[in-house]
């Protein structure tokens, strides 16, 4: 590790400390050339691939960016940081499982939307309004519509089975 003071590539670790439950390590180092101390952080790179944007531009996948977007979507929603962590882990697992060095941003958006749909509908709509670039209220209405259709389909597929469609929908009698 290059010393930030004298640029020499000769330092010793004088202290290591695990942070965030072992997800990252903070190391204090001392430069053997000039004696100055500095800190480095080491963390596991869970996901590494290039994101291909709509414009065709490529940039390295950035977990911090995704986290910032999710936090924004979850503003004032009852979602904990731990839930966001778990969600990011699921998204990264799914994307890495594609085994591609380059992944279109639209594909990432789809995976994120699917996760949000399961977790929080308000956040889903917020994220979708940015990601899908809603032009007007009609776009928003369509997304909400898709959301309720999607959930209805999930209920139908996710049931114990054996129950036919339409069962249990007894009409309510009007009084007065
Ligand atoms: Zn130095």
Topology:
Blueprint: E1 11-19, E2 24-31, E3 37-43, E4 50-52, E5 58-60, H1 63-73, H2 81-97, E6 102-104, H3 105-119, H4 121-131, H5 137-158
Parallel strand pairs: 4-6
Antiparallel strand pairs: 1-2, 2-3, 4-5
The site of zinc ion has 8 residues, from loops.
How confident overall, as mean pLDDT?
81
Total discrete domains: 2
**Regions with little confidence, pLDDT below 50 for 5+ residues:** 159-176
Query: How much strand content do the residues show?
Result: 15-25%
Task: Give the ordered list of helices and strands.
Answer: EEEEEHHEHHH
Helix content: 40-55%
Strand order within the widest beta sheet? 1-2-3
Helical/strand content category: alpha+beta
Number of strands: 6
Largest sheet, strands/sense/barrel: 3 strands, antiparallel
Helix segment tally: 5
Specify the overall morphology: elongated
Q: What is Rg?
A: 24 Å
> How far apart are the termini?
81 Å
Bound molecules: zinc ion
Describe this protein's structure.
This protein is of the alpha+beta class. It folds into 2 domains: 11-43; 50-164. Helix content is 43%, strand content 19%. It has helices spanning 63-73, 81-97, 105-119, 121-131, 137-158, and strands at residues 11-19, 24-31, 37-43, 50-52, 58-60, 102-104. The protein has a 3-stranded antiparallel sheet, with no helix packed on it. Strand 4 and strand 5 (58-60) form a beta hairpin. The longest helix has 22 residues, at 137-158. The chain is elongated, with a radius of gyration of 24 Å. It starts with 10 loop residues before the first strand and ends in an 18-residue tail after the last helix. Mean pLDDT is 81; it is low at 159-176. Bound molecules: zinc ion. The site of zinc ion has 8 residues, from loops.
């Amino acid at each position: 590790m290059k010393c930030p003071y004298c640029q020499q590539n000769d330092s010793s670790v004088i202290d290591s400390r695990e942070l965030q439950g072992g997800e990252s390590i903070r190391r204090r180092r001392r430069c053997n050339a000039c004696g100055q101390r500095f800190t480095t952080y080491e963390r596991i790179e869970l996901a590494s691939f290039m994101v291909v944007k709509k414009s065709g531009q490529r940039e390295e996948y950035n977990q911090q960016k995704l986290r910032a977007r999710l936090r924004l979507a979850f503003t004032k929603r009852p979602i904990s940081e731990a839930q966001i962590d778990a969600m990011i882990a699921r998204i990264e697992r799914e994307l890495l499982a594609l085994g591609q060095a380059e992944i279109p941003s639209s594909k990432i958006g789809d995976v994120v939307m699917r996760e949000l749909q399961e977790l929080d509908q308000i956040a889903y709509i917020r994220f979708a309004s940015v990601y899908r670039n809603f032009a007007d209220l009609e776009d928003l209405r369509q997304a909400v519509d898709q959301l309720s259709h999607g959930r209805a389909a999930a209920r139908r597929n996710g049931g114990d089975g054996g129950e036919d469609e339409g069962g249990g929908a007894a009409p309510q009698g009007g009084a007065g």
